[in-house]
């Protein structure tokens, strides 16, 4: 059986990098063809890292509503059934990478019943604030990832990272006697990508 050169296999890995691409690929029919030997590679620098895993976050901060970890969707969120829907929640952790300049990639999850707001603070500085776009009636999948980036952020090792997030209802999705609230879900594995100096 013929095999493609490893360079071509890597190219296919980049172009077709997705969950279904983790299985072997075969081209041709049962009487002939070739397999692609897929290699796991990274398009980020060798010292690229993300921070932090869920267990490294404190999501019961004084002055904020408590949050919880949504294991099904792999996201930190607010329980809008048990907590006030007009109060911010927050989670904090410590930056454990080297001091430097970083591009930050933050991922929230889109929800049809509301457009939640997020604030990212590092140390005493607010570096990001945004509101999720509306997806109701637009054919976008529930809990689709929404990525926001900010570049040229100076971060010192040991700095406090704090994410504040607010639930929201757009009054469009009936639930019980009222309307549903989006739970301000976001991925705890924020990406901090070192910038070349």
Describe this structure in words.
The chain has 1 helix and 15 strands. The chain has one helix at residues 6-15; strands at residues 2-3, 25-29, 32-36, 49-51, 68-70, 75-77, 89-94, 100-109, 117-122, 125-131, 145-155, 160-166, 174-175, 178-179, 190-194. The strands form 5 sheets. Strands 4-15-8-11 form a 4-stranded antiparallel beta sheet, with no helix packed on it. It has 2 domains: 2-36, no CATH class; 49-194, Sandwich (Jelly Rolls), CATH 2.60.120.260. By secondary structure, the chain is mainly beta.
In total, how many beta strands? 15
* Low-confidence parts: 1-49
How far apart lie the N and C ends? 46 Å
**How large is the share of residues in beta strands?**
35-45%
Largest sheet: 4 strands, antiparallel
CATH architecture annotation of the largest domain? Sandwich
General form: globular
Report the helical percentage: under 10%
Q: Name the CATH superfamily assignment of the largest domain.
A: Galactose-binding domain-like
CATH topology of the largest domain: Jelly Rolls
Number of helices: 1
Order of helices and strands: EHEEEEEEEEEEEEEE
Give a nutshell description of this structure:
The protein has 197 residues and is mainly β.
